[in-house]
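Subject: sequence -> structure tokens, single chain

Hey, anyone have a minute? Need the predicted structure for the following. Not urgent.
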Amino acid sequence: MTFQQPEVDTSPPVSDEIRKTTCYMCACRCGINVHMKAGKVAYIEGNRDHPVNKGVLCAKGSAGIMQHNAPSRLRAPLKRVGPRGSGEFEEISWDEALDIAQGWLEPLRKDHPEKLAFFTGRDQSQSFTSFWAQNFGTCNYAAHGGFCSVNMATAGIYTMGGAFWEFGQPDWDHTKLFLLFGVAEDHDSNPIKMGIGKIKARGARVIGVNPIRTGYNAVADDWVGITPGTDGLFILSLVHVLMKAGKIDLDYLSRYTNAPVLVNQDKDSADYGLFLRDDHGAPLVINRKTGQLAPFDMHGVRPDLNGSFQMGDVTHVSVFRLMAEQYLSDDYAPEAVAERCGIPAPRIHAIAAEIARVAFDEAFELDREWTDFRGETHKTMRGRPVSMHAMRGVSAHANGFQTCRALHVLQILLGTVEVPGGFRFKPPYPKPATAHPPPHCRVTPGKPLDGPHLGFVQGPEHLALLNDGSPARIDKAFTWENPMSSHGLMHMVISNAHAGDPYKIDTLFLYMANMAWNSSMNTQGVMEMLTDTDENGDYVIPHLIYSDAYSSEMVAYADLILPDTTYLERHDCISLLDRPICEADGAADAIRWPVVEPDRDVRGFQSVLVDLANRMKLPGFTNEDGSAKYHDYADYIVNHQRKPGIGPLAGFRGDGTETGRGDPNPDQLDRYIENGGFFLKHIPEEASYYKPWNMAYQDWAVELGLFDAPQPYLFQLYVEPLRKFQLAAEGHGERQPPDHLRARIQNTMTPLPIWYDTDQQGNDGFTVNALTQRPMAMYHSWGSQNAWLRQLHGHNPLYVPTKLMRDAGLEDGDWARVTSPHGEITVPVMEMAALNENSVWTWNAIGKRKGAWALTEDAPEATKGFLMNHLIHELLPPKGDGLRWANSDPVTGQAAWFDLKVKLEKAAPPKDLTQSQPETPPQASPVGAGPGTLTWKVGK
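Reply:
Had a minute. Here:
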């Protein structure tokens, strides 16, 4: 008798329909296939046709199901009925909620638009939110970049027209050596994982520079456990060694950078340190063919790197000469910097030698003809197969701007930017800083702002100052305190508004910015500021409107809650006007669309802004006859034109066949949905490299609508606008800084990158570096409410290196007291050998406040989980001069999260053995706590 095997369906149908959209579980914006069964989300997988992830999907992306079904989702508009911070609300209708918002906002617009401070978190729709704020008329708008990585973006754009992350990527197909600086696993995770896998399969090497060895650094061939805040010193030491050995690309420097541009050397001149220019403003070089002056972009010119020119009594020398004089100094020798960097001098030499070997000994050429902006045709494209990537770890310091500049200068000296094997820009980049608008701040009651809020200053004339010299913006962006703050200073808004410095505001309007918890420096202080009252018993910040999809810690502090949808329930636009999803070989944009309808009384935040704009009849949203231009955000995406023929989406314009430029197409969103939620246009092969100077790329970019005209430019090794601010500090020009800032501007705003120490807390025993970084399975504060992702990171110990564990008498599971000049925490510790020996760290945003996110009060995130934020302050310790010195980079104002220094000592376990300290009292939640067991299964 034969044995009968049971019949098992080994491949049951996962879904009865697939809807393709864009992930929102981090900022990669991968393409996803959302499998639907009986009208519900059953399964999420990667879209193999998508240009970003090509089908790869991480744990976060797959866990989007649990984000969509999170018990913490807000259910209806809410009006506060208890004191701020209590979390006591009542549900109201959308009509009432919008009436309240309009009642607060409309009088401000008519009389004092600047009294609205509108700041958004990681919303990925900043071209739209900034357009709304501009038409409202307030000067007080920015997004989260000021406390994230504005140093990286700003340094990159001023230096080479783009930076890492959304601006560019390594040439994964040709790179043979990949260096990462300060990169944690949460940003750009899928593309980097895919890229590292690709290059390691070819035998390429990876070097990770990071005090902490996790994630990418754990799979690196070499890990460099650098002392936090010294990356710039290490990078400039590499520059020193490479220049001394002659391992720099002189031909690349002379053709494509301002290294040959002549600089005024007359110390008594008001133009000291500025470029010599012709009558049309073009920087001048010495033409090697003739020995005469010539504009840098003259057809046929061959710039002389060693140029010098005497004009009257004034000598002008090339930028390259100034670089050699500065960086060949023994101050940058490995032997001089090793102790501060925590890297032995022989190892610095060895890393420099490896970089040089790969860049020059393994150089190669692609057989592709191209023509540069000077009219010269090149038969091949030369490749230097060294690429780099960096992120918040190097930028979130008070010397982060100059450190990021130093890293870009290192790349450029090697000739590894926009060449085969090196770092490549993603459209719409590269764009020089001069292609971006300057910031605008002129407020007129009842009228739009005079231009875009954010931008790139080219000198003191672009600062956002009022006629009396005081800051125009509540965050003091674009002032003498932080002149190049291209993303604003979100971390300073609440503190400045509470202090009335530079003035009082009426309404704080926040979107998806958890400023009462993990997104705030000085967490407890911010909670107190939001609840503080004046002598009349009124709140110091009178009105607070907040929009979020979830019951976060910030919700409890709002007066009015406008509940957002989840990312699977709304329209979003990942636009070339904003933060696109392009790859180096093509321009791309994407949408999200409601693959499911909300089962709650919630609305997409962008559509709510459209509704408010229509109620207030904001210019830009209103036709000449007073009717509304757009009825919701989807309508705006399709029909808005930033300028004729250019809208939020580049694909399927006009009759559906036009790309980049074209009239609005009423079927555009449907065409995107049919195409998988994205649009992609490939760059012609002859335009694929040398983009800033390649006329084939420049013409293609004009055709696509990225530029109105070709705009080739030079990489700025020497950033002249920085020198203009120094000149002002030296007493030149009409706009002068206050006396107490003159020395700081002179010392930090140098046109060539420098390094300076950021230990501003003094010794006082605070000698241990304290850091946070995000794990690959989490992103901002969203992930640690997610039922699936919580299983990966339910709580966060403080990781302590072996040496400090022994010095403090600690063992795994012990508790330690960690103190800073600002605060104290008591937390569980765990030993970690792969860590800089004088640094401690933990995962960021795991710790939660009891009552938030629908977590139970005994959830590990709310007990053992903790924040390092309790130790940080948005202001530096007082200097005794009565001034409020921000804990920020002095150039850009980026929050200096990673300059924190602490003391560490063993502590007795808390009375409750599971409760980290400080223990913030629970807050009431408008959604309550979720079920004890949360499962999700659709169908059989």
